[in-house]
Amino acid sequence: MRRLIILCGCLLLLSAASLVAAQETAEGVPAQAYQTTNLRSGPDTRFDIAGQVAANEEVIITGRDPSDRWLLVLTEDGINGWVPVYALVYEGDLSLIPVIDESAEENGDAVWITTYGRVNVRSAPDFAAEVVGQLDIGDTAPAIARCCPTNDWLYIVFEPSSGSNSAATPAAGAGEITATIEGWVAYFTVNITGDLTTLPILTEGDVGDVLVEPSDLISTRFNARIRTEPTLNSTIITVVPFNTTVQPLGRTSDNQWLYVAYDGLEGWGSAPLFTINGSQLSALPILATVEATQEPE
Fold first, then answer.
1. What is the spatial distance between Cα 209 and Cα 190, in angstroms, rounded to a whole number?
2. 112 and 92 share a domain?
3. Secondary structure (DSSP) of 222-281
C-alpha cells in the first residue's frame, strides 16, 4: 500500500511537471536580460529598433529564428521585439519554442556580412593596413564593394546603434567610437549572404578611387603588354595573358591606349588588344600621362 501511495505521488509530480512545462512552452520561456539590449523589429541588426530592455529586466521568449541566433521576446510593457540569443539568461528548452522566419526581404539582392567573432576593419584590403575599427560578434553590415574578382576582401559600412552593446569599437589607440565605421574585412572572417559578383570592384590607384562595375570589366584579345607610358617604346611592366580580365581606369584622348589595372599593377596597354565596346570606352576618363605601377625589384 505504501509503495502504491509513493508511486501515485511520483506520477502526480511528473504530471504536474509536464503540465508546467507544457504551459511554459505555450506561453513562452521566461528569461532575463543579461545586459541592456535593443529590441529590433526583425532578427537582424538591419531591422529598425523597436525598443530596449534594461539589464536584469524580465521578458518572455515567444519565438526564435531559423538559425537560433535571435529570439522574439515580449517585455513587461507589452512590446514585442527580437534580441540576440546571447543577450538573455533563461532556463527551458528553446527547441520547443516556435520558429519564426522573418527574412529581410526588403534588402533584395544586397550583400550582407555577419561576424563570427571580433573582426578588425582595415583601411585597405591588406593585413598590414591600419585597423580603423572593430566589429563585435553578431554584428551585421552591408558590403558595398570588393577588392578583386576573387573576393578576398569586402568593403563594408557599419552603423552602430546608439546605446547598443554590440556596436563596433575602434582598435586600441584609434580614439573614440565613431558613428560609422567603413573599411575592409577579410571574407573568411565573416558569414556572407548575397551574390558577391553583383558588387563593384573598388580600385585604388594614382587616378583616384574608382568603382568599377563587374559589367564594365574588359578582357584581353591577345597577350597584352602593359607599359609605363602610352607609347610603344616605353618600358614593359608585365604581359597579361590572352582572355584575362582587367579593370579599365582611363584612356588617352585619341582612344588608342587604355590605362588598366591587373594583378596589383597598373599601366598602359594598346586599346586594340582589349575587348571593349564604344559605351565602355566613352565612359572612361581621359587621363594625362600617369606614372604606371612598376614591378618591385
1. 25
2. no
3. S-EEEESSSSTTSPEEEEEPTT-EEEEEEE-TTSSEEEEEETTEEEEEEGGGEE--HHHH
Query: For the domain that residue 130 is a member of, what is the CATH number?
Result: 2.30.30.40
My answer on whether 122 and 184 are in the same domain is yes
d(C-alpha 205, C-alpha 272), whole Å: 23
The residue segments making up the domain with residue 152 are 108-198
**SS3 call for 226:** strand
Number of folded domains that form the chain: 3
224-273: pLDDT as tens digits: 999 999 999 999 999 999 988 888 888 899 999 998 888 767 889 999 99
**pLDDT (tens digit, 9 = 90+) per residue, 77-104?**
888 888 888 888 888 788 888 888 765 4
Spatial separation of the C-alpha atoms in residues 81 and 73, rounded to whole Å:
6
State residue 129 phi and psi, 5-degree precision. -75, 160
This prediction's pTM:
0.39
CB within 8 A of 97, min separation 6: which ones? 25, 28, 29, 61, 62, 63, 64, 71
Beta carbons of 81 and 40 less than 8 angstroms apart: yes
